[in-house]
């Protein structure tokens, strides 16, 4: 004990940390149950081509239907899962479920665009290529059907091992996308060392388009660089026609955002595919 002269602020702070720790423990144990009880679900958010307006992919996003708390956001439970290591089991479940769903759709004669799955940095170990290969094989899913979304934090961590694992995944036929681009620390020069085929511009830079000059400059720079590196470029979080038009004129390849669709349950995404839903693009001039 530090004695009796402890600052009230410090006491308050440690009480708050204590609460946070308890909250984490609770989420962790409930997440274990969630996995066992089938409370987890994947939603799918379409990616559309800015040339054709067609659905050319989708991102699988994890949802947790808590029996009492209702829908819990991944923004809340993914960080806890990452801290506790539970992200491995969670991540394996996501890959398994995505493969199962792709197989079910293909069995139902749907022509499937690639489905992207998010990976946490902790999942990115030496065993990952093998785990991916086994999941693909179990469900007879072709590797081209899966894209892996990774974040910049991976690129700054022991680059040589990470590059080796990436190369293995790419050699298997899996494509890699760099998520939330622009929010991390990876320098542009650094980027070309990694076998990444797609860059996703973070929503933070899309939100201010086309009125915020800084956001326009950043979006422009990212698109130009991606073109130089021959990478596909996807804009995240596109909500307005104005943003869409601006991005399209910049030469951005794809859009993902509420303008076209929120993330939706599998059967709704299936319906969009069947109906051949398209984004209405302004007439080219
Ligand atoms: P992310 O990978 O960058 O996913 C995009 C997020 O932006 C999703 O939030 C999506 O619902 C949201 N979004 C898409 N379009 C719009 C838009 O037009 N406006 C707004 N306001 N938001 C939009 P979500 O589903 O809450 O996921 C948050 C984050 O949680 C994801 O960010 C990803 O980092 C993480 N996450 C989700 N599922 C998984 C998973 O299966 N594994 C891992 N490791 N992380 C996941
Ligand atoms: Mg993502
Ligand atoms: Mg993202
Ligand atoms: Mg993002």
Automatic annotation (TrEMBL):
Origin superkingdom: Bacteria
Domain EAL span(s) in chain numbering: 24-277
Signal peptide boundaries: none
Name under which the protein is recorded: EAL domain-containing protein
Organism, as annotated: Pseudoduganella flava
């Amino acid at each position: 004990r530090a004695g009796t002269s402890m600052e009230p602020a410090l006491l308050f702070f440690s009480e708050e940390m204590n609460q946070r720790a308890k909250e984490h423990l609770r989420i962790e144990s409930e997440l274990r149950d969630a996995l066992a009880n089938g409370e987890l679900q994947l939603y799918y958010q379409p990616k559309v081509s800015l040339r054709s307006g067609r659905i050319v992919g989708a991102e699988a996003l994890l949802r947790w239907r808590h029996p009492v708390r209702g829908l819990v956001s991944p923004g809340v439970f993914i960080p806890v899962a990452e801290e506790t290591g539970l992200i491995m089991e969670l991540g394996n479940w996501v890959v398994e479920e995505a493969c199962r769903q792709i197989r079910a759709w293909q069995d139902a004669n749907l022509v499937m665009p690639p489905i992207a799955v998010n990976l946490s940095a902790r999942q990115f170990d030496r065993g990952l290529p093998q785990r991916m290969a086994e999941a693909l094989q179990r469900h007879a899913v072709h590797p081209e059907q899966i894209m892996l979304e990774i974040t910049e934090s991976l690129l700054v961590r022991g680059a040589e091992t990470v590059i080796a694992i990436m190369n293995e995944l790419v050699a298997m036929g899996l494509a890699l996308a760099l998520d939330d681009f622009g929010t991390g620390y990876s320098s542009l020069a650094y980027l070309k060392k990694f076998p990444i085929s797609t860059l996703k511009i973070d929503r933070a830079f899309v939100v201010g388009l086309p009125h915020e000059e800084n956001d326009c400059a950043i979006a422009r720079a990212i698109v130009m660089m991606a073109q130089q590196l021959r990478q596909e470029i996807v804009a995240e979080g596109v909500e307005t026609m104005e943003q869409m038009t601006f991005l399209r004129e910049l030469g951005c390849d794809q859009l993902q955002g509420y303008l076209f669709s929120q993330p939706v349950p599998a059967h709704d995404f299936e319906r969009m595919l069947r109906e051949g839903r398209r984004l209405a693009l302004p007439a080219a001039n």
